[in-house]
Amino acid sequence: MAEKFDAIVKRSLTDPEGFWGDIARGIEWDRKWDTVLDRSAAPLYRWFSGGQLNTCYNAVDRHVAEGRADQLAIIYDSPMTGRIERFTYRQLRDLVARFAGALTNEGVVKGDRVIIYMPMIPEAAIAMLACARIGAVHSVVFGGFAANELALRIDDAAPKIVVSASCGLEPGRVVAYKPLLDGALALARHKPDRCIVVQREQELAALVPGRDIAWDEAMDKATPQACVPLAATDPLYILYTSGTTGEPKGVVRDNGGHAVALRWTMEAVYGAKPGDVYWAASDIGWVVGHSYIVYAPLLNGNTTILYEGKPVGTPDAGAFWRVISDHKVKILFTAPTAFRAIKRDDHEGKLVKDYDLSSLQALFLAGERSDPDTLEWAERHLKVPVIDHWWQTETGWSICANCMGLEKLPVKHGSPSKPVPGWDIRVLDEQGRETRAGEIGALVAKLPLPPGTLPTLWKADQRYRDAYLAEFPGYYKTADAGFIDEDGYVFVMARTDDIINTAGHRLSTGAMEEVLASHPDVAECAVIGVADELKGQVPLGFLVLNAGVNRQYADISNEAVQLVRDRIGPVASFKTATVVARLPKTRSGKILRGTMQRIADSEPYKMPATIDDPSILDEITAALRSAGYAR
Ligand code: COA
Ligand code: AMP
Questions:
Q1: Are residues 468 and 436 in the same domain?
Q2: Do 159 and 192 form a contact (C-beta atoms < 8 A)?
Q3: Which one of 368, 397, 412 would you pick to mutate in the ligand 2 pocket, going by the greatest count of ligand atoms within 8 A of its CB?
């Protein structure tokens, strides 16, 4: 049995101070901590209180000092532009130090926030690390969000500076970022002092005199800055993620616990040794990009790949295999949806055979449930372990995983394996009692959470308590439902809130409903996530119109779709809104979204005992059928 693994887990839970205190020696500290785990403000915990370090030093400068100066730190591979650029640790240090100087020139000091709204270009990672170098708190906003979403984040984070680029590149179109940024700044109440903009040759941006400055110009004027010591508990970044309303939650990450945990995961979870080439095929706008494109691989002295492309269409379904063979990737991490896209285009895996994949040792999948079909396809064609692992923006690293560097456990398809050391995962019923093995309930983590997880939400301690700690006292609510089987394997089945997962992206149906409700003809609406072969789930909207509206339904639906695209962004993948006469509700007026979803996905459902008028379900079924669902 998994004796070694079990012993490590046991120590991590019975002696967290000893366990994480030992691991923390892997990080260079400017000042050692006073307490490994500070319980004084429980249930809000802090790790390594009193300690001082610099995350950028540990991720970059340290490797230059310790013999990796000429090793590649970042490989930027962009099938969108046909460019490949390589940066050694020394080159990365020089660029980061210089951009830190550019930020300093603009008056950015420790504790100031910097919003980074950028495509997948090296300057994005350089900007993140430069913030870390001088103690500025970065907040990266994914490029697929619309101006309104960016404005919400600008108002919440109140940045001194925004770093952006003239454009992003999506297959077949150039996404002009600057008009989106200008739109966001017009909408936002908070006005940053300055925007630093990378001018890309595919589309140059018009710069606002006195406010905007080109990246190159800012770099030319800058003097390189050294790393400043920061408290372990100082924030490193804020990453906004979907909450249950249109107001995103600002997940805070600290410096100390984050550096300790992330470096450790590279070897323990992924089996990556310093010097190995590691590729997280995600986007720096998501937590996977923060943790596993930028911070963890660099903290561990790996070479990380920054890929500006897609799994298919750039140019074909062999794109990932080309990158693996060109750069000798040892570990690949992506979302199942990427593999579903590849499988769809190259079902027989013919393109796999065109490349030398001998460097690849493991594939990790996360971000959504891994369907066994896709997992088996990947195992069959890649002939390496395919590891499903479960985590969230809030946790920053995996809650459950088959830890390649500790002891490989037998794989059970459909399960992301067992809790990683540091995590005490339980399943609770509605009364907060632990369920029996195999029984579904709320997946929760016993407090304190391990280092690197969110200590709180940005300027919103009470919201943090309410959203995560209040329902099950003593536990962190993951908002995922699932069960633990008799062997201790965790199965993650569904969200318990209104979050859906579209192409590995986390979206709030509540936020989409808020947008739809703002349409002048809409009296009431509901958005549910329906099963999609490629993206896992996609949102589907229902609109009830105001009395007396006699416009064409198709026009209203199209306007509703466009409204979500304009206000949330194309990433929402919101393509269908159906007009219905009424929505099914309980007698107390709660919309029966779960039942609607089961009907849409052609799953059996029980007539809810509290339903107000059962006949509405027939109307909904008919509407879903005409939209191509409920077969
Ligand atoms: N900037 C601007 N627009 C973006 C964007 C960005 N950074 N990223 C995506 N979009 C747009 C897309 O162009 C698309 O627009 P469209 O409606 O005009 O076609 C829309 O947002 C939806 O994007 P997506 O859901 O990614 O769908 P897609 O059809 O473009 O691609 C996949 C499908 C499967 C190829 C793609 O989702 C993918 O590569 N997934 C990999 C998984 C991943 O990276 N997950 C992140 C967490 S690990
Ligand atoms: P995000 O915060 O965007 O990383 O999304 C986190 C959510 O994605 C989780 O709460 C889960 O609902 C889902 N998720 C992530 N990884 C997995 C996985 N391996 N299996 C099932 N669901 C997952």
A1: yes
A2: yes
A3: 368
Domain extent, residue 556, equals 503-626
pLDDT level of residue 1 (50, 70, 90 thresholds): low
Query: Residue 34 has what pLDDT?
Result: 98
Whether 579 and 617 share a structural domain: yes
CATH of the domain at 221: 3.40.50.12780
Same domain assignment for residues 136 and 222 = yes
pLDDT at 243 over 80: no
Query: Residue 150, Cα to own-chain centre: how many angstroms?
Result: 16
In a domain, 407, yes or no: yes
DSSP string of 182-230, one letter each residue: HHHHHH-SS--SEEEEE-BTTBPPPPPTTTEEEHHHHHHH--------E
CB atoms within 10 A of CB 223: 11
Residue bearing the CA closest to ligand 1, atom 44: 282
Query: pLDDT tens for residues 252-287?
Result: 999 999 999 999 999 999 999 999 999 999 999 999
- The pLDDT-based confidence of 420 (bands split at 50, 70, 90) is very high
Residue 547: Cβ-neighbour burial (10 angstroms; 0-12, 13-18, 19+): exposed
Residue 126, pLDDT score:
99
How far away, in angstroms, is 392 Cα from ligand 2 center?
Answer: 5
What is the pLDDT of the chain when averaged over all its residues?
Answer: 96
Whether residues 38 and 125 share a domain: the answer is yes
The total of other beta-carbon atoms located within 10 Å of residue 91's CB is 17
Which of 418, 451, 482 terminates a domain? The answer is 482
pLDDT tens for 95-113 read 999 999 999 999 999 999 9
Same domain, 160 and 194: yes
Q: Which of 163, 296, 292, 290 is nearest to 237 (CA)?
A: 290
- Type of residue numbered 169: L
Residues 95, 627: Cα–Cα separation, whole Å: 52
How many percent of the chain have pLDDT more than 70? 100
Among 416, 451, 482, residue at a domain's last position: 482
Q: Which residues line ligand 2 (CB under 6 A)?
A: 241, 287, 366-370, 388-393, 416, 478, 480, 492, 495, 501, 506
Q: Do 141 and 153 contact (CB within 8 A), yes or no? A: yes
Overall domain count for the chain: 2
Q: What is the pLDDT of residue 248?
A: 87
